[in-house]
Specification:
This protein is α/β, with parallel strands linked by helices. The chain has helices at 59-74, 82-91, 97-115, 119-122, 141-153, 170-180, 196-208, 225-234, 248-256, 267-270, 273-286, 299-311, 322-325, and strands at residues 3-20, 25-38, 43-48, 129-131, 134-136, 158-162, 185-189, 213-217, 239-241, 262-265, 290-293, 315-319, 331-333, 336-338, 341-343, 352-355, 359-360. Helices cover 39% and strands 25% of the residues. The strands form four sheets. An eight-stranded parallel beta sheet has the order 5-6-7-8-9-10-11-12. The protein has a four-stranded antiparallel beta sheet with strand order 3-2-1-17. Helix 2 runs antiparallel to helix 3, helix 7 packs parallel to helix 8 (225-234) and helix 9 (248-256) packs parallel to helix 11 (273-286).
Length: 362
């Protein structure tokens, strides 16, 4: 089975409510979907969101990387040569991690279809169900309290609370959320907004008030690994590295220096499943648990992340609520999302049969 061609399309889905963090505000999911076609009539799909504030990529740059560099390098190659295909994607262009992830997901999808197996089984897994948290966007404390109460009423047991926009309000935000959701597991995400000392002071104050936080995600700037290690050493709340980890080398550097207690793996940061698997292996060596996360993605790429998480026991925390934040699901097949519960079918590859309302870009 050879790859014979490709097409790119724009997937658009409005969010139920605007998504706000310390870095950005978004009202729609608008992602590039890549379709790879084969000589046997199979279609492999991948997806990449523009997350300029994190990966530096826009819709235009993703389209240009895929159409001008990555996908043409795959045409004519055998689907069975999975390692070579992933190597070609990695070496086709510098950076552009989300574009590479989209192509890699499509390649793995084709490989699973060729083998007649779902991706999680190809990766050595046996479980088919996960439970995700739900993100509460940064906002006024009373609004965040209402959003938290609504999430708990929908059955969510774990909430990821965005903080960091106006740090002076962060303590009030957490007080309001905890009052509205006293039994929920609460994890917070500062999206690089604090200085190291500010982070420690805020986290100490939060815990002193009995807010009972599970973890704090990326409290300081992504490249401030010394500051991240400082917070990890002094914080009463366990620290998770997110934007600081784009590659297996990033993960190893943090793990070797105990720069964080947990690692957040996102396919769009690390360039796809191959590097994600390497990060998992590194975390296993150091006995560090991982979270599987996503950007603002629809179900194509999130389904790939679900398969990875179902296959690897080192991934113990799940933040795959992207599809749940969308007001409509244009993807036919793939993982099933029902509130906090995510389940997989045994469809080959990703198990996706179509993406409706896809606007092709050629």
């Amino acid at each position: 089975m050879k790859i014979t061609g490709f097409r790119l399309g724009l997937l658009s889905a409005p969010l139920r409510v605007p998504f706000r963090t310390a870095l950005r505000e978004v009202g729609h999911v608008e992602d590039i979907v890549v379709e790879l076609y084969t000589s046997d009539g199979a279609v492999g799909r991948g997806e990449a969101p523009p997350t300029a504030a994190v990966t530096g990529e826009t819709l235009g740059s993703i389209q240009a990387a895929l159409a001008g560099h990555i996908c043409p390098a795959l045409v004519g190659r055998e689907v069975a040569d999975l390692e070579e295909l992933c190597s070609v994607i990695s070496g086709s262009i510098v950076g552009n991690t989300s574009a590479k992830a989209a192509a890699e997901i499509a390649v793995w999808d084709l490989y699973g279809q060729a083998c007649g197996l779902p991706l999680y089984k190809l990766l050595g897994g046996g479980r088919t169900a996960l439970e995700t948290d739900l993100t509460i966007s940064v906002n006024h404390p009373e609004t965040m309290a209402k959003d938290a109460a609504h999430a708990v009423a929908q059955g969510y047991r774990t909430l990821k609370i965005k903080v960091g926009e106006n740090p002076d309000l962060d303590l009030a935000r957490l007080r309001a959320v905890r009052a509205a959701a006293p039994e929920a597991v609460v994890r917070i995400d500062a999206n690089q907004a604090w200085t190291p000392r500010q982070a420690v002071e805020l986290l100490e104050a939060m815990q002193a008030e009995g807010l009972n936080l599970e973890l704090v995600e990326q409290p300081v700037k992504a490249r401030d690994l010394e500051g991240l290690a400082f917070v990890t050493a002094h914080s009463p709340v366990p620290v998770m590295a997110d934007e600081s980890v784009f590659s297996p080398l990033d993960a190893m550097t943090i793990l070797q220096n105990h720069g964080a207690d947990y690692i957040n793996i996102k396919l769009m940061k690390c360039g796809g499943l191959s590097n994600a698997l390497r990060i998992v292996s590194a975390a296993q060596v150091y006995g560090v648990e991982c979270m599987i996360g996503c950007m603002l993605e629809a179900k194509v790429s999130v389904t790939a992340a679900v398969h990875l998480a179902c296959a690897k026991g080192t991934i113990t925390k799940v933040d795959l609520d992207g599809p749940a934040l969308c007001s409509a699901d244009p993807v036919v097949g793939g993982a099933n999302f029902s509130g906090r519960d995510i389940t997989l079918t045994d469809g080959p590859g990703l198990g996706i049969s179509a993406v409706s309302n896809l606007r092709y870009l050629d």
